[in-house]
Amino acid sequence: MTAVEYFVEGLKQRGVRWVATLCGHGLDPFYQAAQRAGLRLIDVRNEQTAGYMAGTAGRLTRRPGVVAVSSGVAHVNALSGVADAYMDGAPMLLVSGAAAVRTQGMGHFQDLDQVALAAPVTVYARAMDCADRVLEILDAAFAAALEGPGPAHITFPMDMQTAEVAPDRLLRPARRPPRRCLEGDPEAAAVALARAQQPLVVAGSGVYYADSGPALVEFCERYAVPFVIPIWDRGCAERRVESFMGVIGAATGGPRLLADADCIVMAGAAPDYRVGYLQPGAVKADATVVWLTRGWAELAPLYERAGGRAHREWLEEARRRRERFRNAVWQSGEQQSAGRTHAIHIIRALRETLSDNAILLIDGGSIGQWAHQLLCDRYPAHWLTCGRSAVVGWGIGGAMAARASRPDAPVILLSGDGAFTFAVAELECAVRQGLHFVAVVADDQGWGITRVGHLEKFGQPIASSLGPVAFDRLAEALGARGVRVEQPEGIAPAIRQALETPAVTVIHVPITGGNPVGA
For residue 203, what pLDDT is reported? Predict the structure, then answer.
């Protein structure tokens, strides 16, 4: 067998069912091996989309999604998806082709140090420079992606792909130590929470990847501890729970909770701009900050032993603040709409039509801010955003990956017009390969957040307005189903019908502009 044949079999043994890709001769041996082995290849029109697909698969499954691209600029394009996964802590594997090792550095076709380019945004990056080690290197990349979690990269040169490897020379994966314990001390967290009067849990993506979300929610419900999720991070509120207060760190603000908490538990969350870097002003100067990602399942007895109690009064106050803020956001939308179709009408329609198992993907942009502020009764792990990178244009690839990863779940993409045009040609790829989803495009003919900011600062938008696009007709030209809805009452029926139709459907909703304004 060749090294690449072992490699493809190794992918299948590790649970990989499909690979996102854009063809190039640097991967010809890989393609042939994948086809022979029955490993599905999902092709796209831009390597950036393939990278987003692999990262999305990693977010949904907690297993590395795989993207395979050719060499040179193809590798560079795919790094957009890698960087996005790196910032979100999502496991994925980028496999990039390359010309032969023997002519590396001599100016062979697309001669580029791909490993060096990938290294800053991966948890593992190396070249496949020994065919005998093909499974050992693949195993190391998978282990690093899971351990991080985060993206890993392997550059796979052509002469390594086609090298014959005798079974007795094949090096098997090495035994590896168990995954490292994530930061945090349950006993210290229990003591700090027991002493608190107004505690707050900040539940970030690390909790999802550690599979600690259900235990965290159960603890917060049992002891009436409010918890929030930083915007763009993975959710863990699978159902509507009293203690979930929504997202924090949005550009448009949120209920005042972090600044008044006397004990903050950072649960798999980064101390970044979304929590004011945990600096005075954003948090109380004397607030206690503790870290706990794992260990939530064992926290209750430790908490009770430390004298912990239910924080009912504080939770009720937190809920009042949340509702006051949300009502103000709804009111600001009503005022902005002035009788015209607005973002809030799309959000209301989604609230009516989203089933518990539906995968909702929220691309970056103004419409995402409305969704994060108003769809905060719950925030399940199977809802996806572009991640902490806040990239725009991730959504179509994300929706394709969601359909490939969860064939039986409804998939709905919420996107703005600017973000949707980043990779709109991928609709043809989704249609051709039966990757059905519903896209709701909120069209305000602009980069909404930036344009509103320009109007406030400069009195006019600067390079932030867009021209009209008939997204319904564009979708039809690419083989998808296109629907245009201009009245608010037509949005929910259009979504319901689209969910019942086995097709890629684009629902074009022209709206008036504006960003959320809270209390």
Answer: 97
- Tens digits of residue pLDDT in 174-226: 655 544 334 678 999 999 999 999 999 999 999 999 999 999 999 999 999 99
CATH code assigned at 395: 3.40.50.970
Nearest CA to 56 out of 46, 67, 40 is that of 67
Cα-based distances in Å from 6 to 9, 64, 139, 245, 356: 5, 18, 12, 49, 40
For residue 295, give the CATH number of its domain: 3.40.50.1220
Secondary element (H or E) of residue 94? strand 92-98
Quote the CA–CA distance of 337 and 513 in Å, as a whole number: 8
pLDDT at 182: 44
Domain stops at, among 321, 346, 365 = 321
Distant-in-sequence, close-in-space partners of 369: CB < 8 Å, separation ≥ 6: 250, 251, 252, 449, 515, 516
Give the 3-state secondary structure of residue 19: strand
- Structure confidence by residue, pLDDT tens digits, 111-150: 999 999 999 999 999 999 999 999 999 999 999 999 999 9
If 0-12 CB within 10 Å is exposed, 13-18 middle and 19+ buried, where does residue 519 land? middle
The domain containing residue 378 runs over which residues? 338-510
